[in-house]
Amino acid sequence: MTNIKQIRLKPTKEKSILRFHPWVFSGAIKDIDSDIKEGDIVEVISNKGRYLATGHYQIGTISVRIFEFKQQEINEKYWATKIADAISLRKDLGFINNKETNIFRLIHAEGDEMPGCIIDIYNTAAIVQFHSYGMWKLRKTFSKIIQNLLPNIEYIFDKSLGTLPEKFILENSIKNDYLFKTGNKNEVIASEYNNLFKIDWINGQKTGFFIDQRENRELLGQLSKNKKVLNTFCYSGGFSIFALNSGAKEVYSLDSSKKAIDLVEKNIELINNKVGNHVSIVADAMDYIKNLKEDFDIIVLDPPAFAKHQKVRHKAIQGYKRLNARAIEQIKPGGILFTFSCSQVIDKELFRHTILSAAINAGRSVKILHQLHQPADHPVNIYHPESEYLKGLVLKIY
Ligand code: SAH
To answer: Which terminus, N or C, of the chain has the lesser number of Cβ atoms within 10 Å?
Structure first.
């Protein structure tokens, strides 16, 4: 039917693909067409030659990232349909033409059946981050499709320098750069539930903001009135801004990065009423929490992924445990702790168990009020449990 190149699996190695898992590991491959290059679109076939799936080939532990399980031609129309489906889902979720919230994730890699591709929307900006060479090769096609389907977009910025493997960066002299630009700035003001943020995709971390905490920030806002809040690992102050706009008595924002704290200060300036009750701190979170007086009503712990691989999982668990034990020890009696992990290799159960050990160490009475996760615009592909990464607990501590 097509002249797509093929990769043949070893006998019995097709099981995970028959269960729609979107990765082919290198050990499963029997042979590959000789002219296949990295970044090519390939068909994966069983040992007996039956079509199984279509994906992007790349040398590495994961050799094929699958984006399709039905044999068909892969052309611009195919990708346009896929991106239109993702937009349609976000429309159903209420994110399109929504003035209160115009920050959302449009493409969540495997969660939207586009492994290797992340697209985040900030008002009139679309920031694209590629993790695979095959997806990066499609950047101009995606840019054209986004311009057609989302006519309000003024900026499309490719920020793949930190996410693509080094060899592709060097071979192709890849830079972070605009794919499309009609606006004359390098940042936009965007909104989450009417809380305003300045999004600087060039200097900011990731695509400029941590969109995945939106609903959890909203929950924190609901609990913050007249409270004294400590937001650690605050980055650009997402939780702090929600707390301040919801009437918190005092908010302390802490990050080890001075650049992050500069972003917090810029976001504070966007708050209408003059804020005299905010304190910025550049420090290590653990050092700071160790010496806390027991006077914070709410503490947020949202560290970066302590474990990016299975090998370092044990050490990461010890890190989460120490940090949480200290926060549980030092919070005001009756206080509330928002604690998170975004490590993919630490699942919900393990995270909860880790917090349980921390609570035992701290020796206080602890109740779970909420079990948090990533929002619906970061959908979890049911066949790919790895796409579920953010978990959080809201704890009441006596
Ligand atoms: N809560 C944030 C996202 C956190 S990302 C939000 O809602 O947007 C993790 C942050 O932790 C980064 O900004 C990083 O600079 C910071 N960080 C990393 N190690 C740290 C440490 N040891 N102490 C304090 N902050 C740290």
So the answer is: N
